[in-house]
Amino acid sequence: MIARRRAPGKLPIMTPSAPQGFNDALERWNERFSQPGYLFGLEPNAFLVKQSERLRPRSRVLCVADGEGRNSTWLAAQGHEVTAFDLSPVAVQKARALAAERGLSIDYHVAGTDTWDWAAEQYDAVAAIFIQFAPPAQRPALFAGMWRALKPGGLLLIQGYAPKQLEYGTGGPGRLDHLYTADLLRELLPQAQWLELAEHEAVLAEGSGHRGRSALIDAVARKA
């Protein structure tokens, strides 16, 4: 494995009533993922399932900050060639166990987004589902890396929390500067062809981590 693939990754879910710092991400996520069961459940993210219809058979897919493997294992079960990484070794161990239980082969790594080797034109799709841990100063490099990793014609699939999520406190970083808007995503990826870019509300039931009415943004960008 390339030595650069080691760094801080996702940060804890917080609500406005319980603000926390972001300096101890590894410890916090290891603690959360060490609890019994699966923090975000075993079912794949509904947005990812819907958008996967855009993928060609046997696509090569990268799952960013994949956690305990609910999304990567589902994609692999659909016949895709999946690479996934997460900061937390506890999460990756659980993801590997889940893949083994389901008889799936997935290329898992323990790594964070700011030092992952975003090699150019490697993937048909990159899935970035609720990865709003990155400080605003790091966000341009993160999005540039995900975009660089896509092959021409590849898809970047993003679901995140929108600013109104602060009113609900049902998941997410609990900090306005970590939330997404359509204008922010357009600014980060001015070269993208947007196939979908919309803010909406929905009731999530993704384990105990994402549960209740939520303000979301769905985005699908194609690389020319």
User: What is the name of the CATH superfamily?
Assistant: Vaccinia Virus protein VP39
How does CATH name the architecture?
3-Layer(aba) Sandwich
Taking the sheet with the most strands, its summary is: 7 strands, mixed
| Rg of Cα set | 16 Å
CATH topology: Rossmann fold
| Rounded average pLDDT | 89
Q: What's the overall geometry? A: globular
Unreliable runs: 1-21
Give the ordered list of helices and strands.
HHEHEHEEHEHHEE
Gap between N and C termini, in Å? 29 Å
- Identify the CATH class: Alpha Beta
Structural class: alpha/beta
Helix content bin: 25-40%
Total beta strands? 7
Number of structural units classed as domains: 1
* Portion in beta strands: 25-35%
How many helix segments?
Answer: 7
Question: Within the largest sheet, what's the order of strands?
Answer: 3-2-1-4-5-7-6
Write the layout of secondary structure elements.
Layout: H1 25-33, H2 46-51, E1 60-63, H3 70-77, E2 81-86, H4 89-101, E3 107-110, E4 123-129, H5 139-149, E5 150-161, H6 165-168, H7 182-188, E6 193-206, E7 210-222
Parallel strand pairs: 1-2, 1-4, 2-3, 4-5
Antiparallel strand pairs: 5-7, 6-7
Structure characterization notes:
The protein has 224 residues and is α/β, with parallel strands linked by helices. Helix content is 26%, strand content 27%. The protein has helices at 25-33, 46-51, 70-77, 89-101, 139-149, 165-168, 182-188; strands spanning 60-63, 81-86, 107-110, 123-129, 150-161, 193-206, 210-222. Strands 3-2-1-4-5-7-6 form a seven-stranded mixed sheet. The longest helix has 13 residues, at 89-101. It is globular and about 40 Å long. The two termini are 29 Å apart. Mean pLDDT is 89; it is low at 1-21.
